[in-house]
Design brief:
The complex is a heteropentamer, with one copy of chain A, two copies of chain B, one copy of chain D and one copy of chain E. Chain A is built from eight helices and no strands. By secondary structure, chain A is mostly helical. Chain A has one domain (11-211): Orthogonal Bundle (MetI-like fold). By secondary structure, chain B is α/β, with parallel strands linked by helices. Chain B has two domains: 1-92 and 171-261, P-loop containing nucleotide triphosphate hydrolases (Rossmann fold, 3-Layer(aba) Sandwich), CATH 3.40.50; 102-168, no CATH class. Chain B has helices at residues 44-51, 83-90, 108-120, 124-137, 153-165, 183-199, 211-217, 235-240, 245-256; strands spanning 6-15, 18-28, 33-37, 59-64, 67-68, 71-74, 77-80, 93-96, 171-175, 203-207, 220-225, 228-233. In chain B, strands 8-9-10-3-11-12 form a six-stranded mixed β-sheet, with helices on both faces. In chain B, strands 2-1-4-5 form a four-stranded antiparallel β-sheet, with helices on one face. Chain B has a two-stranded antiparallel sheet with strand order 6-7. The longest helix of chain B is centred in the last third of the chain and has 17 residues, at 183-199. Chain D is built from eight helices and no strands. Chain D is mainly α. Chain E is α/β, with parallel strands linked by helices. Helix content of chain E is 40%, strand content 21%. Chain E has a five-stranded mixed β-sheet with strand order 10-9-11-8-12, with helices on both faces. In chain E, strands 4-1-5 form a three-stranded parallel β-sheet. A two-stranded antiparallel ribbon of chain E has the order 2-3. In chain E, helix 2 (34-45) packs across helix 9. Classes of the chains: A mainly alpha, B alpha/beta, D mainly alpha, E alpha/beta. Chains A and D meet through helix 2, helix 3, helix 4, helix 6 and helix 8 of A and helix 2, helix 3 and helix 8 of D. Bound molecules: adenosine-5'-triphosphate (2 copies) and magnesium ion (2 copies). The site of one magnesium ion has 4 residues of chain B, from helix 1. Chains B, C: GO terms for molecular function: ABC-type amino acid transporter activity; ATP binding; ATP hydrolysis activity. Chains B, C: Residues 6-251 form the ABC transporter domain. Chains B, C: It is a peripheral membrane protein.
Amino acid sequence: MDIWLGYLTLILQGALVTAQLTALGCLFALAMAFLAGLGRVSAVAPVRWLAAAYVEFFRGTSIFVQLFWAYYVLPLMGLELSPMQAGVLALGLNVGAYGAEVVRGAVEAIGREQREACVALNLTRAQSLRHVILPQAVVVMLPTFGNNAIELLKATAIVSLVSLADMTFQAQVVRSQTGSTAFPFLTILVLYFLMSSVITLLVRALERRMSRGFEGTRA
Amino acid sequence: MSAPIIQLQDVSKRFGELTVLDRLSFEVAPGEKLALIGPSGSGKTTILRLLMTLETPTDGMVMVEGEPLFHQRRGDALVPADERHLHRMRARIGMVFQHFNLFPHKSVCENVCLAPVLTQGAKPADARRRAMELLDMVGLSAKADAMPAQLSGGQKQRVAIARALALSPRIMLFDEVTSALDPELVEEVLNVMHMLARETDMTMLLVTHEMGFAHDFADRVLFFDRGRIVEEGPPDEIFKNPRQDRTQAFLRKVVAAGHRV
Amino acid sequence: MSAPIIQLQDVSKRFGELTVLDRLSFEVAPGEKLALIGPSGSGKTTILRLLMTLETPTDGMVMVEGEPLFHQRRGDALVPADERHLHRMRARIGMVFQHFNLFPHKSVCENVCLAPVLTQGAKPADARRRAMELLDMVGLSAKADAMPAQLSGGQKQRVAIARALALSPRIMLFDEVTSALDPELVEEVLNVMHMLARETDMTMLLVTHEMGFAHDFADRVLFFDRGRIVEEGPPDEIFKNPRQDRTQAFLRKVVAAGHRV
Amino acid sequence: MEWDWDFVRQITPQLLEGARITVVATLLGFAFAAVFGLGLAIARRSRNRALSWPTAAFAEFVRGTPLLVQLYFLFYILPDLGLTLSPLAAGVIGLGVHYGTYTAEVYRAGIDNVPRGQWEAAKACNLSASQTWRHIVLPQAIRPMVPALANYFIAMFKETPLLSAITVLELMNQARSIANYNYRYIEPITMVGAFFLAISLVSVALIRLMQRHWGRLGRLGSFRRNTAIPS
Amino acid sequence: AELEDLKEQGFARIAIANEPPFTAVKADGTVSGAAPDVARAVFKRLGIDDVVASISEYGAMIPGLQARRFDAVTAGLFMKPERCNAVSYSEPILCDAEAFALKAGNPLGLKSYKDVADNPEARIGAPGGGTEERLALEAGVPRERVIVVPDTQSGITMLQQGRIDVYSLPVLSINAAVKTANDPQIEVVAPVQGAPVYCDGAAFRKQDTALRDAFDKELAAIKASGEFAKLIEPYGFSAEAAMSTTREKLCAAQ
Ligand SMILES: Nc1ncnc2c1ncn2[C@@H]1O[C@H](COP(=O)(O)OP(=O)(O)OP(=O)(O)O)[C@@H](O)[C@H]1O
Ligand SMILES: Nc1ncnc2c1ncn2[C@@H]1O[C@H](COP(=O)(O)OP(=O)(O)OP(=O)(O)O)[C@@H](O)[C@H]1O
Ligand SMILES: [Mg+2]
Ligand SMILES: [Mg+2]
């Protein structure tokens, strides 16, 4: 029994790494999403192209490949990253590319009418974006961002394949030390589900808070 | 007659193949109340959108207060206007939309204050005071802190009018401001506009399908068809004795459609 | 007077807390043309939707041609109707919607033919012949092979009328069939309806905000407010000499809203 | 380390063999997901709570946990329960179940996307339930689903490298095997990346074309991932 | 890395495998096992007080070393000429022969990699990037019958489930794994006929020969003092085997 408790602690240590990866990855992805998403609706054509290239590249190649690149190839080019940094970089860049499309879509979904009202009130582009478009767009983005965060959480499992001691990896360790397969894997399945439920609940709470002012205008 | 505040000279607007405005020219005097009427698709909205710089003309010149709207002088030449020029010109013009286009995430008062604070550098307290005056004028001071979603259509449209007025434009554009409203709510908005027309010397351009209102409101009526002015004149003349067949047919249809109680 | 074709007895409809129809009772005679008018939200649409079985009443009895609409006899008891009963009853009733609701993936002719072929087992060739007659009647035989997206609003609505007629219902329900149309297109639809009213002995229920049309079209007008009938009578009486304050106020507002050319 | 074209030429056949398995796994997995998702969607729409509720819970659970762990589960634990699947079969079922929970949402959105007015008009035309589905709802629902489903197809394609964890010799696994044998990582991994990029750029272009023709499904965020992310 | 750098930071990063008895992770998370124990002792004598061990797949070790993720690999990564070209090895540390785990009674009669190659039914499991995979391929087993198994426990599970017919690892690893599994249906064939005895060494980056040389010096010292034998023999390894051969021989062997 003590043994299992000990190995459970080991898995929980992995869970901490997973949580950390998820949190940092989400922050980085969020930053990239806004940077590239707003880049895609920029008035400056080269900025649009750059943002589009980023999005297509990182959505186009598998995250698996990106992670292996960040982990094994970047150091050969002289950029040394800790496994955690490589993980956060790959996850953030990948999910950020998907998030950028969400940002762009939401900004475009805040229709022509709102943008025209801004022109009629003589707001500059930056003012319209900051005071009118983004506050509404963020509410539209939130649910999809929540889903993206869960996708990121799930993607952290593959860092185990580059030997970062996350939850899945620790489960593998426990498995080879104890010979039991069901215990570690069922444990981490439950833990992953708990984590994704936490994300779902957080996003819902945030959604409720942010849309409160709208009083049900966008159902 | 004083110098015109708005001049269109041979203005055309094409969307791809479709010619929406066809070498159109007309002038508006300062303080004039002008109604634009005509069948659907005749280009009425497009004229207002051009004046608000929401569209760019394909051809021709638009002058506002003697200055070109879409061009600026560089040395001797006229070049397309940059964003700064447009920004300066837009300050003179306000527009009220068919679907109100209020900002749903801002309260009524914030909707009205936002632009003065951001574009004219008004102090928030001053902007709020002025907003309350305007809301009072449109009969909505009690709703200053409500959110747009809590208002009826007629109330929303009155807020939209107050919002446009907050920037003190010299020209106001109204595009079918009552056509999205329930019939019972139309009156309250038209009352506000009547009052504006009487009590200010703003120049107003009005697109509407409410012939009765156009008649009472306007100094002059332009009847459009297919991007051209078919007939113009004082409302009495246009509505009672239209000279053109096209105008007569249009008015007959509108009347037949049931607006006759 | 012959037996009523439609009877509502103490019909209530609640959506959660909201009472939309409040113990409503009225009858319609066969062949009668009835106009339902009243302010927004008063429950007019809900009555038509009930008759079309798109909603179920919370309380009360609806009879169509002497048969309960939402109930069926099992032995001595009345039990809620099953789908088969509803299907049989629906065959007597047709409805035209405010937003046409044409099937966008089917051509005009297919829209009209579909139901006769599927529900009445009509032969496709016969159904098509009859559809062409109906389209001819609404003035659209030339558009039989067009898709709905290629039609104007007025044309769409005329197709919708032909589609409803194709099943030869004895009762036709019209819910604000012109309010989504451009003013110029209203006339063509109203002409078709006038013609129907004159030339057939179908029972018709009409919800409309076009008071002029209601006046000319209806044998009898019901004025609703908050789910109850406030006043009823022949159109001349209701529109010229309304007895109730509420009716007077409503008509005054609608008139003030500009329907007065 | 330098890029070595000779090495590239030498390993290409082996990578192509891996690519073949990748494509096979994606096709089979997607077929499974398309059918399984339909089952989920129907079960979730069911009025019977005893069916719809567990289905919803199952879908939530599958969507909330990593495919990699699910694959381990299918491959290493199911045999203890008496079901031994070949690696490819386990991979196809894993992909299919995981993505089935997403395609189910596409089906649901596609059906919900048919305006209420269409159902009501069908009723006013006195069509029966099955006639309404066949002639009115499905023809309108299916077309906008196609681009959304295609998006998941691509996402799934990019997730096949996970099958290497259960010993399927797909593209990524071949690349790793080459790398392990030769101690050279740059060429094989980069080639895999280029292969994925090429395929997905082509398919993105195809989807854009489909969307232009068949319209876009629903509003942004109306289902869980409008464009999918590998996990 | 330079020895001085490591001394300064006070620890060395080593890669270990998730494979008893080369490596063992206790329930409390501490790392032991023959390879890390030796590494710890040698580094201590070099003035580096601690080792930070990360568990890694075999296939990820050399790329990780090249990508500067570790300073050394001490994981039972056996010396082979190709590997000697890719990294700098220390003198031999742990030696072991290859073994097969297979179904009790050895129904396919597999005794060597050649036997596996000759039997078209036989599927062999081996860790990806490990020596056994290479031995199998070199013996002529076609690619599709060499199943790359992610870790030892998966290999045993797959053998039990009949997904592979034989699972190949070093003798001691197999013994440890089979003991954990405690399954009478599995038996061990050891050593595999015709397969050489291999020894691992600590692997360093190609250019870190100075560090490697320093490591060698202290390794020789503990071998001489008998401390070496005390460290590895409890795990079942033979100190004699390691001391009777050299890197030079092993790297040249074909
Ligand atoms: N952005 C656009 N792209 C293409 N065509 C357009 C665009 N905007 C307007 N049009 C077309 O220009 C024509 C004139 O439109 P406009 O909105 O000015 O008419 P209108 O007189 O306001 O009609 P209504 O009374 O229906 O509002 C119409 O045929 C319309 O379809
Ligand atoms: N499905 C529903 N759920 C909740 N409330 C509803 C529903 N359908 C209608 N209502 C409410 O019932 C009331 C009556 O609606 P109804 O559509 O019958 O009014 P109406 O007289 O047709 O009004 P209008 O002239 O605006 O069409 C309204 O307050 C409406 O909001
Ligand atoms: Mg217009
Ligand atoms: Mg209604």
